UniProtKB/TrEMBL annotation:
Organism of this sequence: Carboxylicivirga sediminis
Signal peptide: none
Protein topology in the membrane: Multi-pass membrane protein
UniProt name for this protein: LysE family transporter
Keyword presence, Membrane: yes
Length: 212
């Protein structure tokens, strides 16, 4: 059962991370702009956030879920504002200026990690995603021991981290072919994509929750 929990956790972690939303676009953009390590570390920030929400879902921390449900609209609005601001910043980034700044100072990997963690943790809907995954896989129940649940959560972390390693590695393979002109347009496309995805996702959620 313990090995099965690890495997299930890995599958859930990968499945929850694969959809290329705003965070995925950000990881791609950072890999192209700053390098493989920056992209992967940024992905690890998202993986840690997903793991925290998996813990909340896996251990059925009802008081946290209840708080998220009661404040969901305001949390969503806060997350939307932050992500749109990020999209605008990327859209307006000049790659030539960015490269000169990187030569003058060392890029902070901790900043990459915690910025992505903060952006991902601002999306509380992730906890309900993991609740759905756990229910679908039937991996959480009263018969599970603490060790079973811990191994399941560990598998989620490994699965999520593995996806970000794969994505950043694949993008890094094409990094040498990207010149400043292409990077300029990649920033424009990445910034625009983040804004569009955020606005679209928020609009769909508002429609389902308050209109339909």
């Amino acid at each position: 059962m313990t090995l099965g929990n690890i495997v299930d956790g890995v599958i859930i972690g990968v499945s929850a991370s694969i959809p290329l939303g705003p965070i995925g676009v950000l990881v791609v953009q950072r890999t192209l702009n700053k390098g493989h390590l920056s992209g992967f570390v940024s992905g690890l920030g998202a993986a840690l956030s997903d793991t925290i929400y998996a813990i909340i879902a896996g251990f059925s921390l009802s008081f946290i879920v209840g708080f998220i449900e009661s404040q969901l609209l305001w949390i969503q609005i806060f997350g939307v504002i932050i992500l749109i601001s990020l999209g605008l910043k990327i859209f307006n980034t000049n790659p030539a200026i960015q490269l000169r700044r990187q030569k003058r100072k060392t890029t902070s990997l901790l900043q990459d990690f915690f910025s992505t963690f903060a952006l991902t943790i601002a999306n509380p809907l992730a906890v309900f995603l993991f609740l759905a995954f756990f229910a679908g896989f039937r991996v959480v129940g009263s018969e599970n021991t603490l060790i079973d649940n811990l191994l399941l959560i560990g598998g989620v972390m490994v699965g999520a981290a593995s996806w970000w390693l794969i994505l950043s590695s694949l993008v890094n393979m094409f990094r040498s072919k990207i010149n400043l002109r292409r990077l300029f347009w990649i920033n424009k496309i990445a910034g625009s994509t983040i804004i569009v995805l955020v606005v679209l996702a928020f609009s769909i959620w508002i429609t389902k929750e308050y209109i339909l």
